[in-house]
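Exercise 4. Each item below gives a protein and its sequence. For each, produce the structure-token representation.

Item: Alpha/beta hydrolase (Mucilaginibacter achroorhodeus).
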Amino acid sequence: MKTNLLLLAAGVCMSVAACTSNGSKKAADSSAKGDTAAMAATDTTKALKPAGPAPSWAPTMKPEMQVVIEKLASYGDKPIPELTAVEARKNHTPTDAVMDVMKEHGIAKPVFNVDTMGKDIPVDGGTIHLRVYTPKTNASSYPVIVYYHGGGFVIANLDVYDASANVLADKTGAIVVSVAYRLAPEHKFPVAHNDAYAAYKWVVNNAASIKGDAKKIAVAGESAGGNLAIATAIKARDSKTMVPTAILAVYPVAQSDMNTTSYIKYGNAKPLDKAMMGWFVKNYLNSMAEAKDPRISLVTANLKGLPPTTVINAEIDPLQSDGMMIVDKLKAAGVTVDSKKYDGVTHEFFGMGAVVPEAKDAEEYAVAQLKKAFGM
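Answer:
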């Protein structure tokens, strides 16, 4: 059914997030790099063997990825489309699965040379929370990465994506500002987009207060957060705010047609499937007409003048075509683009470097691209 159900949803909060509606608060900021950091890149990845055959919807799935998916399925949570947003936020996440796999297989948690602190900032209609990850290197100033988590704008929080923020800060030597934008259905479109831009603008105007270099600020995000990263860069350009130094978009939501090649091929994939998309869309959008808004359908937006952009895609992902389409559109608009597609892995693999080799490679690739943009 071609109803422009908009993949906007994706970033499924590592699929089924155990989280609160407004993201992590300050009480968790100082300890965030503990358990959830377990997902980030490490040099001691162990070989993992799945319990059964590869699923019919992903015969090419890598064994380590399959172990994570098997663990996620073992929790027996109800499918997201059968739940309310509040209920869905209590489901297990791929983050939980990775942490349990590590415990069961004796995989050590990586240690990050990063400090965290919380910061609340005013936005239109309220406040949002930022978690600031600062490398413990005693530099006088650092480049900054403004990071947007996934979750379909409905579920997920800073903790669910803590590993990604930690590894980016630790490995790039840059400050990462992770943004707890407000979630739907409590806050409908375009609140998340407005919050994302407000957070970026706050960083531009207040970089020195967090030891950031105001001339070197990138935006990054996963899935729904990848959409926010690109949309924020567009808004900055149009608002005459400093354009970001670079964009990192990991399997970004980029358009609203759910009949793309990858949507058809991987419509039953996990942790993100087509049925979930309709649920996310109903929760986030005020009407289906908004699916064509260029903030959501990025492939129809004016992309000229955007900074160097890196796009990371997963093979076993309904959003694979989205990522490929936005790469083509960015190139056509004259933007410098670099991209990689990782075979045998699913949506949400980024940040699982402790157990999935492809994820570790993707993290290292993202870090290298950001460091190049920062001139590091």
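Check: The chain has eleven helices and eight strands.
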